[in-house]
Design a protein that fits this description.
There is one protein chain. This protein is mainly β. The chain contains 2 helices and 14 strands, in the order αβββββββαβββββββ.
């Protein structure tokens, strides 16, 4: 019985979600978009994926360092299954706490963006959780992600995991 309990405790699946090294802000119309990418590093199927994003700013008034938390709405916060990469997008409009903020202001307020991703692992029949964070200096402005996959001669899609980090600057 002890062996079963130990095996059950230490054989739990863990999420192997790869996050892009940077977030990018793409100058889109009518509002810019804050984006990051994730990809499943395992060959197992993840389903019923959910993601949440939160902005943390440090308020330095009265010589105190109080953290303020703001929810960032995602364009698509849930997907049914996760076969390739997923680019998560937050529109920086009037409702966004990032609206009108400069890079200097985000730096001064020690901005950090917290990410939580949850999904169901079909192989182990368990719910997986993972989290990640981006500091203000990991946000690249006026950029967009480049394609991270290609199609072979048979029409199969080939995902290049390390290319989810690639972006290009835009004017």
């Amino acid at each position: 019985m002890a062996t079963g309990l130990l095996y059950g405790r230490f054989s739990r699946p863990s999420a192997r979600i790869l996050f892009s090294r940077n977030m990018v802000v793409t100058p889109a119309e009518p509002f810019p978009k804050l984006m990051f990418r994730i990809v499943n590093q395992r060959s197992n199927m993840l389903m019923e994926m959910e993601s949440r994003m939160m902005l943390v700013l440090v308020d330095h008034t009265n010589d105190q360092h109080n953290r303020k938390y703001y929810s960032l709405k995602l364009e698509v916060a849930n997907i049914i299954f996760f076969p390739m990469n997923w680019t998560l997008v937050h529109v920086i409009n009037e409702e966004s706490p990032l609206y009108g903020k400069s890079t200097e202001e985000l730096s001064r307020q020690e901005a950090e963006i917290l990410i939580h991703v949850k999904g169901f692992d079909d192989t182990f029949s368990q719910i997986l959780h993972t989290s990640y964070s981006y500091q203000h200096d990991q946000i690249v402005w006026n950029a967009r992600f480049q394609r991270a996959y290609e199609t072979d001669e048979n029409g199969n899609i080939i995902m290049h995991l390390n290319e989810i980090h690639r972006y290009e600057t835009v004017i």
